[in-house]
Amino acid sequence: MDSSCVATSFRIPEQVLTSSGQRMQLLGFGTAAYPLVTPQVAKQAILQAIKLGHRHFDTAYIYGTEQPLGEAIVEAISLGLIISRDELFITTKLWCSNAYGELVLPQLRRSLQNLKMEYVDLFLIHCPLSLKPGRYEFPVRKEEISPMDFGSVWAAMEDCQRLGLTKSIGMSRL
């Protein structure tokens, strides 16, 4: 085999988050794919990324990759690629159709169940708008977009943090 094709791990620079003191790799491995890939393809890509040294993974409920990510982490531990989930930095996001104060916690709990985790490192508001609840289709129709009630959504995000379900919270796409 040509040695230039052999996978080797590499060091990705890290940053310490001031809000939590956690170390986060500056380059996260994104798990969104369009067109969509099968869960098995996603899982294998994530396992390969772990082998190469990635420790920061970005997912979202809307991507459909939380479950393959969770399965890949379980397999990586069993293969000895990592010792525990604590070696990883996992980001997931609140989708716009759940961007209502009363829907934030239930969505994070579903995400954690998909990921097979007790917490994520970072929980982000995916986009600063709300969609009709339960809407998970693309393209998004203009009439389904509404302003987000940032106060209630952010308060619910803070509740998730207080409950220990996420270490940090934030906003994506500003």
CATH superfamily: NADP-dependent oxidoreductase domain
Strand percent estimate: 15-25%
Count the domains.
1
Helix content: 25-40%
Low-confidence stretches: 1-6
Mean pLDDT: 91
How far apart are the first and last residues' alpha carbons, in Å?
A: 46 Å
Net shape: globular
CATH second-level architecture: Alpha-Beta Barrel
Folded structure, characterized:
This protein has four helices and nine strands. It is α/β, with parallel strands linked by helices. The protein has one domain (19-171): NADP-dependent oxidoreductase domain (TIM Barrel, Alpha-Beta Barrel), CATH 3.20.20.100. The protein has a five-stranded parallel β-sheet. It has a two-stranded antiparallel sheet with strand order 1-2. A hairpin with a 6-residue loop joins β1 and β2. The model is unreliable at 1-6 (pLDDT under 50). One of its GO terms (molecular function) is oxidoreductase activity. This is NADP-dependent oxidoreductase domain-containing protein.
